[in-house]
Design a protein that fits this description.
Length: about 475
């Protein structure tokens, strides 16, 4: 098969990257991926399957002892070199992410720069992984040693492939583990390029392997592999549950970052000049394809109409289209997700909500060739509606009025998810009080996406468990050994 793309940045075929080499140039089993912005075949990807998973894990296992024993300062220097290599190739990577994911140039650029920052941040942590000395009675001394697990498996989602691969791989390597990554089948290209750039930056072959393929075959083979020692997954709740069941077979520890239905609360004393654009960004970033998106906007009833009017005015300025067109919002990455969002738009209308802007796919002109959704705002939403309870994963905002602080907290927590939340208020006491009551792993005040790579990130309830980012991520990739000595 030959890809129909005319963009020279994308090759016609991509195979898995194992032990420093691309494998599978003559693969019998392959699949096509398409550019979400125009529907054209972008490239052909290898279906790795069990054999290549076995090969990747074996190579990672063989590379583990030397990487584990490499001094932390040397690991850090290599990770820093990877960061620099990513930035040197920023333009190429932004182009690849835009074509493969359908992202706007702004969103793709953010992902690439953030990925580089992960490697930079954990480069500085690699030589600072000390234990503690524990006083014991009598003539004994006890101390702890943080030690890596071995081979870590990373199942990466399609919505932010490059950034999220770095989010898991960088701390895993800094902690002394090796990594096997299975990128989403729809968005494999940039992760393969990342592995190649890491090799060029000095990372030993076998430390970072990538196996491409479908989740039901290649992904399932990886998470159930007996020589994998730890698993990290970002994606849907049902898939996370399936991975938990597979991990139970070998008692593998997990980090799961699953769905979200984040509340974003505008109190009556909020600065609307910041809250309105901030709240729109919270849902429209990456065309709403973000687990942490602020998809439920809780607005004090006294401000409801003013806030909605401001949101609609700003939403009219959103420009849909491919990255090359200078768009501010890109396409929906997968055909299945494109169909799912349209289904939820109809569900919202049937439930009695009103789409004050948007409410359908965007099919004017060249947009008809791609998978574009009009940024949508629903009013008249009750928190019991499906559009308020279920993750839509698109640029669809549900506006819900509230009457008191207690009411806002109750509505915010009335969901099975608990990934992120935001609140807008000038009252510092209220900010601390409400943040303490919100059932979510991350709460941001007078902003929505804040924290950077240094701040731990993860969920409560059905949004998963474990933490990524910051020093907390390092602890996820380390196990503790206690040594006690009688003197």
């Amino acid at each position: 098969m030959t890809a129909a793309t005319t963009d020279s940045a994308v090759r016609e075929f991509y195979g898995s990257f194992i032990n420093g080499e691309e494998v599978g140039e003559s693969a019998a089993s392959t699949f096509e991926t398409r550019n979400p912005a125009n529907g054209q075949v972008l490239t052909v990807i290898q279906e790795g399957g069990q054999a290549l998973v076995d090969q990747a894990v074996a190579n990672s296992r063989a590379a583990f002892p030397a990487w584990r024993d490499l001094p932390g300062v040397e690991k850090g220097r290599i990770l820093l070199a990877i960061s620099r290599k990513i930035l040197e190739n920023k333009d190429l990577l932004v182009t690849l992410e835009s074509l493969d994911n359908g992202k706007s140039q702004m969103d793709a650029t953010f992902d690439v720069i953030t990925a580089a920052r992960y490697f930079e941040y954990y480069a500085g942590m690699a030589d600072k992984l000390g234990g503690e000395t524990i006083p014991l009675p009598g003539t004994h001394i006890s101390y702890t040693r943080p030690e890596p697990f071995g081979v870590t498996a990373h199942i990466v989602p399609w919505n932010a492939a490059f950034q999220q691969a770095a989010r898991g791989v960088a701390p895993a390597l800094a902690a002394g583990n090796t990594a096997v990554v299975k990128p989403a089948e729809d968005t494999s290209i940039s992760t393969l390029v990342m592995a190649r750039l890491a090799l060029e930056a000095g990372l030993p072959a076998g430390v970072f392997n990538v196996v491409t393929g479908l989740g039901s075959t290649t992904g399932a083979a990886l998470v159930s592999h007996p020589q994998v020692s730890r698993i990290t997954f970002t994606g849907s709740v049902p898939t996370g549950q399936a991975i938990m069941r597979a991990a139970a077979e070998h008692l593998n520890p997990l980090t799961l970052e699953l769905g979200g239905k984040a509340p974003n609360i505008i109190f009556e004393d909020a600065d609307l000049k910041a809250a309105i654009p901030g709240s729109l960004m919270a849902i429209n970033i990456n065309a709403g394809q973000v687990c942490a998106a602020g998809s439920r906007l809780l607005v004090h009833r006294s401000l409801h109409d003013e806030v909605v009017e401001g949101l609609v005015a700003l939403n009219r300025q959103v420009k849909l289209g491919p990255a090359a067109s200078g768009s501010s919002m890109g396409a929906i990455t997968t055909a299945a997700q494109y169909a799912k969002i349209q289904e939820y738009l109809e569900i919202g209308k049937a439930e009695g909500a009103r789409a004050v802007i948007g409410g359908s796919a965007a099919t004017d002109g060249e947009l008809a060739q791609g998978q574009f959704i009009q940024p949508t705002i629903f009013t008249g939403v009750d928190n019991s509606m499906r559009i308020a309870q279920e993750e839509i994963f698109g640029p669809v905002l549900s506006v819900i009025p509230f009457d008191s602080e207690e009411d806002a907290v109750r509505i915010a927590n009335d969901t099975k998810y608990g990934l992120t939340a935001g609140l807008w208020t000038r009252d510092l006491g209220r900010a601390h009080r409400v943040a303490a009551q919100i059932e979510a792993g991350q709460v941001t005040v007078n902003d929505f996406f804040a924290g950077g790579v240094q701040a731990p990130f993860g969920g409560y309830k059905n949004s998963g468990f474990g933490r990524e980012k910051g020093t907390h991520a390092l602890s996820e990739y380390l196990q503790t050994k206690t040594v006690s000595i009688k003197l």
